[in-house]
Design brief:
The complex is a heterodimer of chains A (about 375) and B (about 475). Chain A has helices at about 1-10, 25-35, 40-45, 135-140, 175-190, 210-220, 230-235, 240-245, 260-270, 315-320; strands at about 55-65, 70-75, 90-95, 100-105, 125-130, 150-155, 165-175, 195-200, 225-230, 255-260, 280-285, 295-300, 305-310, 340-350, 355, 360, 365-375. With about 375 residues, chain A is of the alpha/beta class. In chain A, strands 4-3-6-1-2-5 form a six-stranded antiparallel beta sheet. In chain A, strands 12, 13, 14, 15, 16 and 17 form a six-stranded mixed beta sheet that branches. In chain A, strand 8 (about 195-200), helix 6 (about 210-220) and strand 9 (about 225-230) form a beta-alpha-beta unit. Chain A starts with a helix and ends with a strand. The relative contact order of chain B is 0.12. Classes of the chains: A alpha/beta (about 375), B mainly alpha (about 475).
């Protein structure tokens, strides 16, 4: 009892690091008393950027080209990364471009506890360059091995259960294949490939990510069917053809990931067949810029919403519906009103700069640029 | 009265002030759009250098029983604390590096190596001080509540102790700031002063105990037999940092030329007027690159007050453009050497310790404050004028020069009149003295004459008697 209290006291300064620090937290907490107000990690990461448990970091060890506009990034995570994620989950990755950290989420493509050459535990993600996506283009075309990135812990409910269901259907298109790839690789590694049908759409053969691997899996596992739909030559995959091609599709546990239009159609199709409970969907957040001026602002914790024009500050918007927002100078100089933008876009009224999900915004000089959600 | 109407004081039209504001906005935008890898590298290197200096200082102090090790360790630690306080803590907390989107170098999460919690300082400083810069009754950094820095504040007997209070504040600056911020935090939150168990109090206590324990218990204890000298070294480093921070802050806000404002000025203040207030309310001091770095670039206090959230490493280039604007709009740009700026502040501290009846100037026309009334009884040739030939504008700076010249003229005239009066008085005195001498001589002569007559008479009487 007393010992536990003492341990808690010792760990207190490192409490924010949480369970990621594990047993090291006692030591970290004790040392933090002499490094206060910093944590020992603040010094350690100067020696090696991966030696910080205060923040998850990783080093890109390899960039493998998948197709002309996509690549797999193999990353060695630093201290505190939890390798026990579930296949299908995604991670946040922060990368430095022109002095600024940019964050995006990407599905992990590797199975959990994946060990690379030399026994190092690694993770991998696959990135497809978006036409206007500055970050994805940078990751696909410009990032060098050795680059340090920041990571956010794996999350997401689009996961393959353990053990996998007896009958599975995967419906993917484009980069929607990435979370499914993690599931397929996990099944393959555990030698547990059940009766799986995978329908994947891409414009041409050259655009198919992991094409060779899919063919290899198809050859090695009789229970696995890889159905490639090349849309440029054969058109879009018709959901109605499921009855003909895979008539047992209603019995299959289905995971679908791809463009919004395709997912909407699938959702509708499953609903009208009365098997909506067998469908799992992952909607990628499309990398895009602000969509307009004004929009519906949602205040996350209170759940209050209102629609505003593009000239009303988020602070005024919140106050008009009675949300208690921090504020100070009301002119953008004191940084008292800073709140995280958890979804959507906002615009800095002083210079028109766009703010993206995950950015911290000064509510007194920012307005909604399309629908957005504030984390308060 | 301090400045109540910035337009009247600056001799600019409302349109001029608006244009000036737009030009300052464009300076801001050009820095914002050019922020990038170079700036990010600057702050990361500064952080790394500061951490290294601190680690080196602490390590050297393990041998602090040796005099040279003590000196070296103390110097390293002092420099580390100064950089941490000025270039890192102050500037990061202003949000100067928030654009990097780096959670470890962000205004919402930075904790500094000072007594008070960063969060409390941020509200007191970023909000109360930077929004209401030098507004009497609103900006509590004006004299930090214990010094009378303008004669607009009524004199109280306690101000006699100002010279001592000033020294105490300088030596314990971080404590002064910490308590000051806690007070403002409680005031903003509506918590009574006397209550000592509110969340801000607890946060304060936690931070203070960690800071004190680190410098005065844990590190000395870690160095074992050298604990006493390490303790002294840590105390010295804190003292050095305090004195330096104090000097930089005082040079930025209290030399002559850094004006004060009344609450009336805030009424419907435009963005341009806000900029002007920042410009007129702050003062710079001249510094080379090293001193600029050590002051957290607060030698560019004017630029910092105009753009508190732009990266500090850009202030030197911003300063060039701000000076150009000052020339264009004929506005003063208050600067001078560190020594001169401090002496001006020092003079104000000591002068204003005295009651107003010992002071010569009024608050409309004092070295530490002036107002638009300063110009009311001085005949200025023609206000708001742009010379059609040279295009040179007549604004505040020229008006101040004219006012100074006019005051000097007035003083010279008064001196002249005085001298003439003195000469006249002297002449009259000489005359009167001469007359007096004359009268005295006449009187003397008369007395001699009368004596002679008397003697004569007496002699005659004697002669008669003898003859008898």
């Amino acid at each position: 009892m007393v010992l536990n209290k003492f341990r808690e006291w010792l760990e207190a300064p490192a409490a924010e690091v949480g369970d990621r620090g594990g047993k090291l937290n006692v030591l970290r907490g004790a040392v933090a008393r002499v490094t206060t107000p910093l944590l020992p990690d603040d010094y350690l990461h100067l020696a090696n950027p991966l030696w910080s448990a205060r923040e998850l970091r990783g080093r890109i060890v390899e960039v493998q080209k998948e197709t002309a506009d996509s690549a797999t990034l193999v990353i060695k995570p630093g201290w505190g990364f939890d390798f026990k994620y579930r296949p299908g989950q995604y991670i946040g990755i922060g990368i430095l471009i022109d002095g600024r950290w940019n964050w995006r989420s990407y599905s992990l493509t590797c199975p959990p506890d994946w060990t690379g050459e030399g026994g190092k535990r690694l993770i991998s993600i696959a990135v497809k360059a978006m036409p206007e996506g500055k970050l994805s283009s940078h990751l696909v075309n410009g990032v060098a091995a050795g680059t340090i990135v920041r990571l956010a812990a794996p999350q997401g409910g689009f996961v393959l259960p353990e053990p996998p269901p007896a009958k599975v259907l995967f419906l993917t298109a484009g980069s929607g294949i990435t979370p499914v790839m993690s599931m397929l690789r996990t099944m393959d590694r555990r030698d547990g490939v059940t009766d799986v049908v995978h329908v994947h759409s891409a414009p041409t053969d050259a655009d198919v990510m992991f094409g060779a691997e899919l063919r290899d899996l198809h050859d090695r596992h009789p229970s696995f069917v890889s159905h490639l739909q090349l849309t440029d030559s054969h058109g879009l995959f018709s959901l109605d053809s499921l009855d003909e091609l895979y008539p047992d599709w209603r019995e299959r546990e289905t995971w679908a990931c791809g463009p919004a239009g395709m997912l909407d159609a699938i959702e509708q199709h499953w609903k009208s067949a009365g098997v909506a409970d067998k469908l799992h969907i992952e909607r990628f957040e499309v990398e895009r810029s602000a969509v307009g001026e004004g929009g519906t602002v949602t205040f996350g914790t209170t759940g209050r919403t209102l629609t505003v024009d593009g000239a009303t500050s988020l602070l005024e918007a919140g106050e008009s519906v009675g949300v208690q927002l921090p504020f100070g100078c009301r002119m953008g100089i004191c940084q008292t009103c800073v709140v995280t933008l958890s979804a959507g876009h906002a615009r800095d009224l002083r210079n028109g700069d766009e703010r993206q999900p995950g950015d911290k915004v000064q509510t007194c000089i920012s307005a909604a640029a399309g629908d957005c959600t504030l984390d308060i | 009265m301090a400045i109540t109407d910035i337009q009247g004081y600056t001799h600019l039209t409302a349109a001029d002030i608006e244009t000036l504001g737009k030009e300052l906005d464009s300076i801001r935008r050009s820095v914002e759009t050019s922020r990038g890898e170079r700036d990010a590298r600057y702050i990361r290197r500064t952080i790394a250098a500061q951490r290294c200096l601190e680690v080196a200082g602490r390590a050297v102090l393990f041998g602090s029983r040796n005099r040279w090790a003590w000196l070296g360790g103390t110097a390293l630690l002092s420099v580390a604390k100064i950089i941490e306080n000025m270039e890192l803590g102050h500037n990061v907390s202003h949000g100067q590096w928030d654009w990097m989107n780096d959670p470890e170098i962000h205004s919402t999460s930075w904790e500094w190596d000072m007594t008070g919690p960063s969060a409390q300082w941020r509200r007191a400083h970023n909000y109360s001080h930077h929004t209401y810069t030098n507004v009497l009754g609103k900006d509590e950094d004006l004299g930090f509540g214990i010094l009378r820095m303008t004669r607009d504040e009524a004199w109280r007997p306690v101000h006699l102790a100002q010279p001592a209070a000033n020294l105490l504040l300088a030596a314990t600056f971080e404590w002064g700031i910490a308590l000051h911020d806690l007070g403002i935090e409680k005031e903003l939150a509506g918590i009574p002063d006397k209550k000592l168990t509110s969340p801000p109090d607890l946060e304060f206590a936690r931070k203070v105990s960690r800071q004190v324990a680190k410098d005065f218990v844990l590190y000395p204890a870690l160095t074992g037999p050298a604990w006493k000298s390490t303790l002294k070294a840590n105390a010295t480093a804190n003292l050095v940092r305090n004195l330096w921070a104090y000097a930089v802050i005082f040079c930025g806000h209290f030399p002559d030329g850094a004006e004060k404002f009344t609450i009336e000025q805030l009424d419907g203040e435009t963005q341009g007027e806000w900029y002007l207030r920042q410009m007129l309310g702050s003062a710079n001091f001249k510094a080379g690159p090293v001193m600029a770095f050590m002051s957290g670039n607060l030698c560019y206090q004017i630029e910092h007050h105009l753009f508190p959230d732009l990266p500090s490493n850009r202030y030197s280039e911003v300063a060039v453009r701000v000076r150009e604007l000052c020339d264009k709009y004929d506005l003063p740009y208050t600067t001078g050497s560190l020594g001169k700026q401090y002496l001006l502040a020092f003079r104000t501290i000591h002068k204003l310790a005295l009651p107003d009846r010992f002071l010569k100037r009024t608050s409309d026309d004092a070295p530490e404050t002036s107002s638009e009334r300063k110009f009311s009884d001085i005949s200025l040739p023609e206000r708001l004028r742009v010379d059609p030939e040279t295009g040179k504008r007549f604004g505040l700076r020229s008006a101040l020069q004219d006012a100074k010249a006019s005051l000097q003229e007035k003083a010279r005239h008064e001196k002249e009149v005085l001298r003439e009066a003195k000469v006249a008085l002297k002449a009259r005195a000489r005359q009167e003295k001469a007359a007096l001498r004359e009268a005295k001589r006449a009187l003397g002569e008369r007395a001699t004459h009368e004596r002679e007559v008397l003697q004569d008479k007496a002699a005659r009487r004697w002669g008669r008697r003898v003859a008898r």
